[in-house]
Each structure stands twice: as structure tokens, then as C-alpha cells.
Design brief:
Elements lengths: L6 H14 L6 H14 L11 E9 L5 E7 L16 E3 H5 L9 H10 L13 H6 L4 E5 L2 H7 L4 H9 L3 E4 L6 H13 L5 E4 L3 E6 L2 H19 L13 H14 L5 E5 L2 H8 L3 H5 L9 H4 L4 E2 L6 H26 L12 E4 L3 E6 L2 H24 L7 H8 L2 H4 L14 E5 L4 H12 L3 E6 L4 H8 L2 E4 L5 H15 L4 E4 L14 H29 L3 E6 L12 H21 L4 E8 L11 H8 L4 H5 L10 H13 L7 E4 L10
Parallel strand pairs: 5-6, 9-10, 12-13, 12-15, 13-14, 15-16, 16-17, 17-18
Antiparallel strand pairs: 1-2, 1-4, 2-3, 4-7, 6-7, 8-11, 10-11
């Protein structure tokens, strides 16, 4: 690993941060932010909020009095994007005074840290804040560097550390983060006052120095030594070519059999493909995580599926995995004499020959985090095996971390949104009702795949952090390929809002054939192509789902001159009922929304004005010409679609959203 330190960049950081945060940021804090970001941008050092850094300095308190503080990375901040507010300042002398206590519970430690904050509104400092405070050095850096983990995750790690580092780094046997680890680390440093840092067995690396550059470059040097010792060679197991068709087959089968709705993320990188094809796979991955910090994201161990596993084999494998997890939980709970509520026993990482890593999460970000962590787990295991024999911590230590309240707090306690973990495919999403649906379903927590023939759908998707694609839904082949891409992106689909349409106009008796065919293709057949492609995935998942269609009041109350539109929409209502009938056997619900007089781009310019004039109304009054005397908005229609998506006991229904129009009421 090479140092990325730049004196010019460091000076620029000092100038920038001290100007932006004049009260809470001095030169020390600015350099702490700069060097922390250097660590954070290296995925082989820290991932997704991992690691922490600190600096001891002086800042003014609320009276303007200079106060000695330790600025320690706060919970919820990522080193790669750290800013000065992410280094909450804690009064140093009273923090160090805690060392005199005979013991300190986790809850008391958190309370003590908060009581000593210079700014009471600041985030909680890291759970390793006391370790930073009890060490005498000005700058301290901590990471879970892959190469260092390969050295400290060994049966004879202490001897190996001595071989690689000599007296430069003191060794600390594994202790769970908190007060006890802080004491143990301080004692190890005091016994080796000339050391450059600490090697925490089964955990990671600490380096320190009297300036930011010294601490950072000592960190780089320690990682480089570990990399040199591993001398990774080409793994003998070849990496197969990722099998996309196999993933399209397996992903819905797996996703539908998990205990809750989750997003899948496929990571077929060469290292993962090689690892999954290794004959020793089960034994290697069965040893446990490379650091306990990963367990809340990856679980204690991954699930291994045999190549070609069908639905029955996946169900058996999941049942066995859940049984092993429950046995682990109950054994460790009894061994520690504690009472805990068992967490979800499903895997977060699945390994399968031909596919590599498949990760699961409540949303796409969580699934990607699990995949990132396991990709680096593979690197650590491979390096550790080059050095000696990879060995994880005992299950008891993993359990302690997995069920530690301070670790679980990193995942947050927010109530899951109604569609969390569910994938929804929305057509015609660039504008009008489709756009309103995209926004409403995103607010409900759905993972969205938005399609439209208008490239503007990409801008809509970007604003909602959704996936998007330009698709002509009248092309069956294009729709089927698009649903395949949904599976490749998210692992499956849970629902469809089939919304795309256009209002074709002509007297029905003299309607040009091309207009009638165009209306039938867009307003009826495109919905069939979308629903049929979605049903293929929903049936494989076997966990239910919904098909929602944007019909029209014209299906029941056609307007003169709108025959091509009304005929297709009447057919769409019949199509919906057919899916309700035939989809019920696999738990798929089909419903339709009939909207009327919504301001969208459905009608060509001048049509609304002409229709209003024919009724003796101004255009605005035309939109309010219903029983309730209120205008129906695209957002009203989107809310109706969401209600139907959540109505678990409703299928075959047509829901009017028209302010009241009895002539169009279904009967």
C-alpha cells in the first residue's frame, strides 16, 4: 500500500475546514479530517462506517474558554466522507478520569461520553472512544485492514505478529470493544512505550503519532508489511464465467423463500467466482467472519447452495441454515446466562458455484454492503491461507458482538416502511400518473424499476434513487428483456403498476385500422406483455405479489369519439379479472384503478378545452365536474394504487378515482 499524503492537499484542507467551521475546527481537526478521508477511501482498510480516528487538541467551550478535548469519529459517520461535525469533541481530562473506575457498563459508558461532550447536540462518539482517550498519543487511526486481518486471524497470531512486526506494534488479545478493551490497549502500549501502534487479534490495527501524517503513514507501513508477508499467489481454483441465465433462474427461487421481503445483489467478481468453485468452500467459509464488526451485516456464516439447486433444494438448505443459526443462538445464550430475542435467522450472504456472491438486504444499499464485506472476507481468507491457516474468533465472541446493543444501534430502529424490501416495476413513469406512482411508492420504501419510452424517465429515477430504462412496452421481447434486467438488478419483482397508455380518438365505425391496432397494442396488449413477464418471476418466487392496471372510466362509460381508447380499456379490465382468477393460485392479486379527468399529458392539446366547451364548462370547471366537486390529481390516483398494493385480501377489484361519476361506476 502506498501513502496518499500530499502536503499541498493537507494545507488546502486546513484552509477549507477552518474557514467553514471556525468555532469547532482548528488545524489539528482539519488535518484529522484530511487523513481520515485518506484511510476511508481505501476499501481494503475500512468499509461502510468501519474504523475510527481521533485527535487530542484544544477547542473553546461554550464560554469561549480553551478546553482540552479528544475529537473522536462519531457514530453514523463514514471516514471516506468525514467532516468536522463527525468528530465530536469530548472533554479530555474527565474522559481520561474514567480509567480509575474498576468497571463501566456499556450503558454507563455511553452516558459518560455524552455527559462529557463539548456540544451536547453532537453525535455519540465511537464505542472505542475510551481506547482513543486512554492512549497518550495526539493522533490515532484504527482500521480493519484486509491484509492485517490476514495476520491477526490465525491460530498462532501472536507469534506471527512478532515475526512480521517485531517490537514496532504491540499485540492485544481479543477483547470486545468497550471499557475493558480500552484498559487492555492502554496497558499494552504502556508496556511497549516505543511502539508505533497496536495489533488487536481478531479485530484490526491501531496506529498513532504526534502529527496526522506520522499516524497515517505508520498505518500505511503496517498494512504494507502485512501485504508483503501474505505474498498472495494466483489461487489454483479457476474462476468460471458468470452464468446470467442461471442467476435469472435461481434468484427468484431464493428470494421468494427467504423469511422476509429482501433485495438481492449479485456479485460475480472473479475472486468470488473462484471462491464459490473451491472444493474447500464449505469448510473455509464455515470458520466465521474475519472481524466481529461484520456480523451485523453478513451474519455469522454464509449459506452455501449447490450448483443447479431447485426450489426444493433451496428450501431444504434454508431450513438447515435456520436450524444451525437457532442452535448457535440458544447455545450461546445459555453459555452466557443471558436472555436475548433471536434475530432474523436467514442468511445475508449466499455462495453458489457458477454465481459467486448473492447478498440479501432490506434495501439495495444493505445488500451491496453485505456483498462488499464478503468480497473483502474472501480476500482476507485467501491471504490468511497463504500465511498459515485462517481462524475466526469463537462463536461466543461473535454472538457477543451480534447481540451487542451498541452494535445493533448502527442498523437503526426505524419502523420499516410498508413496501420495504419489495420491488415494483412502473411503466409510463416519466410523467403524469406514472410519475406520481413512482414518487408515492418510493415514499413507501419500494425498490423501483421505472420504464418509459421517454428518456426523461432517467431524470425521474435519479431523483428517487431508482433504476430506470427506456422501453417500448408494445414490444413483447423488449418487455421480457426488461423484466430479466429487473431480476439481475434486484433478484425479483413483487409488483407492477402497468400504467403506460394514450388516448386514441376516432369514431369507432370509421376508425383507421392503424389507429385501432395502435390503441390495442398500447392500451391492452402492452399490459399483457408486462403482466405475463412479471407472472413468470412471481410464480417462481411463490410469495405472492400484485398486478395493478391503469384502466379508465371509459371502460364503463365510453365517450363519443373515443372508441379506440374505450374498447382497449374495457379489454384491460377483462384482462385484470383474468389475472385475478388465474394468479390467485400463486397468491398474486390483480386490481385496476379507473381514473377520470386528471391533468396529465394523456390528451392531445385542445382536447380538454373542446370536451369542456361541449359541456358548457371552462376547462378548470371541467376537472371539477363530479359528485364531490373537486379536481382529481395524479397524486390521488397514485394513492389509490398504493392502497391496492397493500390490500392483501383484495383482488379483481376496479377502484374508481374520479370524484364521483355514477355512470362510470363498475356494476
Amino acid at each position: 500500500m502506498r501513502s496518499a499524503w500530499s502536503d499541498a492537499d493537507a494545507r488546502a484542507a486546513v484552509s477549507h475546514y477552518t474557514a467553514r467551521y471556525p468555532r469547532s475546527c482548528n488545524e489539528d481537526v482539519a488535518l484529522r479530517v484530511y487523513s481520515s478521508r485518506l484511510l476511508g477511501r481505501e476499501a481494503a482498510l475500512v468499509l461502510h462506517g468501519g474504523g475510527n480516528t481521533s485527535v487530542k487538541t484544544t477547542l473553546p467551550d461554550d464560554l469561549g474558554e480553551p478546553t482540552a478535548v479528544a475529537c473522536i469519529k462519531g457514530s453514523g459517520w463514514d471516514l471516506a466522507s468525514l467532516e468536522p461535525p463527525g468528530l465530536p469533541a469530548v472533554r479530555l481530562a474527565p474522559l481520561q478520569a474514567l480509567r480509575r473506575l474498576p468497571g463501566l457498563s456499556d450503558e454507563a459508558m455511553v452516558a459518560a461520553l455524552r455527559a462529557r461532550l463539548l456540544d451536547p447536540s453532537a453525535p455519540n462518539p465511537s464505542v472505542e472512544a475510551l481506547l482513543h482517550a486512554f492512549l497518550p498519543h495526539k493522533f490515532i487511526d484504527h482500521s480493519h485492514a484486509d491484509a492485517v486481518l490476514a495476520v491477526v486471524d490465525q491460530a498462532h497470531a501472536a507469534e506471527l505478529c512478532e515475526e512480521v512486526y517485531g517490537a514496532d506494534y504491540a499485540v492485544v488479545p481479543y477483547v470486545m470493544p468497550g471499557f475493558a478493551l480500552a484498559l487492555r490497549a492502554a496497558e499494552a502500549q504502556a508496556a511497549a512505550p516505543g511502539c508505533r501502534g497496536l495489533l488487536l487479534l481478531g479485530h484490526g490495527l491501531f496506529s498513532f503519532g504526534e502529527d496526522a501524517r506520522e499516524s497515517y503513514e505508520r498505518h500505511v507501513e503496517a498494512v504494507t508489511r502485512a501485504e508483503s508477508r501474505a505474498r498472495r499467489v494466483q489461487v489454483s481454483v479457476p474462476a468460471p464465467t458468470p452464468d446470467e441465465r442461471e442467476y435469472l433462474r435461481v434468484a427468484p427461487l431464493l428470494r421468494g423463500r427467504l423469511g422476509r421481503r429482501e433485495i438481492l445483489h449479485w456479485r460475480p467478481v472473479p475472486e468470488a467466482m473462484s471462491f464459490a468453485a473451491d472444493p474447500a468452500l464449505r469448510e473455509l467459509c464455515g470458520r466465521g467472519p474475519v472481524t466481529p464488526d461484520h456480523v451485523i451485516r453478513t451474519k455469522q456464516r454464509p449459506l452455501v447452495l449447490d450448483a443447479g439447486a431447485d426450489a426444493a433444494a433451496i428450501e431444504r438448505a434454508l431450513a438447515e441454515y435456520r436450524g444451525r443459526y437457532a442452535a448457535y443462538f440458544h447455545a450461546q445464550q445459555a453459555a452466557r446466562g443471558v436472555t436475548r430475542v433471536m434475530l432474523d435467522p436467514d442468511p445475508r450472504v449466499v455462495l453458489m458455484p457458477g454465481l459467486g456472491i448473492v447478498a440479501a438486504g432490506v434495501d439495495e444499499a444493505a445488500a451491496k454492503i453485505a456483498a462488499d464485506l464478503y468480497e473483502h472476507t474472501i480476500a482476507v481468507i485467501r491471504d490468511a491461507e497463504q500465511i498459515g491457516r485462517y481462524q475466526a474468533l469463537p462463536d461466543g465472541d461473535i454472538f457477543d458482538m451480534e447481540y451487542w446493543s451498541l452494535e445493533q444501534a448502527k442498523l437503526g430502529k426505524a419502523t420499516p416502511r410498508a413496501l420495504a424490501g419489495q420491488v415494483v416495476y412502473v411503466t409510463g413513469a416519466a410523467s403524469g400518473i406514472g410519475l406520481a406512482c413512482a414518487r408515492r411508492f418510493a415514499a413507501a420504501g419500494a425498490a423501483l424499476y421505472l420504464v418509459d419510452r421517454d428518456p426523461g424517465v432517467h431524470a425521474v429515477a435519479a431523483g428517487l434513487k431508482a433504476a430506470s430504462e427506456v422501453v417500448d412496452v408494445t414490444s413483447r421481447a423488449a418487455v421480457e428483456a426488461s423484466l430479466d434486467r429487473v431480476v439481475l438488478r434486484f433478484g425479483g419483482v413483487d409488483g407492477v403498476v402497468s400504467n403506460a397508455g394514450a388516448a386514441f380518438q376516432a369514431p369507432i365505425a370509421t376508425c383507421p385500422e392503424d389507429q385501432l391496432r395502435a390503441s390495442l397494442e398500447l392500451n391492452l396488449l402492452s399490459h399483457q406483455w408486462v403482466a405475463a413477464a412479471a407472472m413468470r418471476v412471481l410464480t417462481a418466487q411463490g410469495s405472492g405479489g400484485f398486478l395493478l392496471f391503469n384502466a379508465s372510466k371509459a371502460a364503463f362509460n365510453p365517450g363519443e369519439g373515443f372508441g379506440p381508447y374505450a374498447v382497449a380499456k374495457a379489454g384491460l379490465v377483462a384482462l385484470m379479472k383474468q389475472y385475478a382468477l388465474e394468479g390467485a393460485r400463486v397468491g398474486v392479486r390483480a386490481n385496476a384503478v379507473n381514473a377520470d379527468r386528471v391533468r396529465t399529458g394523456l390528451f392531445a392539446p385542445g382536447v380538454v378545452e373542446a370536451r369542456a366547451a361541449a359541456r358548457g364548462l371552462a376547462p378548470d370547471a371541467y376537472f371539477r365536474a363530479n359528485l364531490l366537486g373537486r379536481e382529481v390529481t395524479a397524486e390521488d390516483v397514485a394513492e389509490a394504487f398504493l392502497c391496492l398494493a397493500l390490500a392483501g385480501s383484495t383482488t379483481g377489484a376496479v377502484l374508481p378515482v374520479d370524484g364521483g361519476n355514477l355512470a362510470a361506476a363498475p356494476r
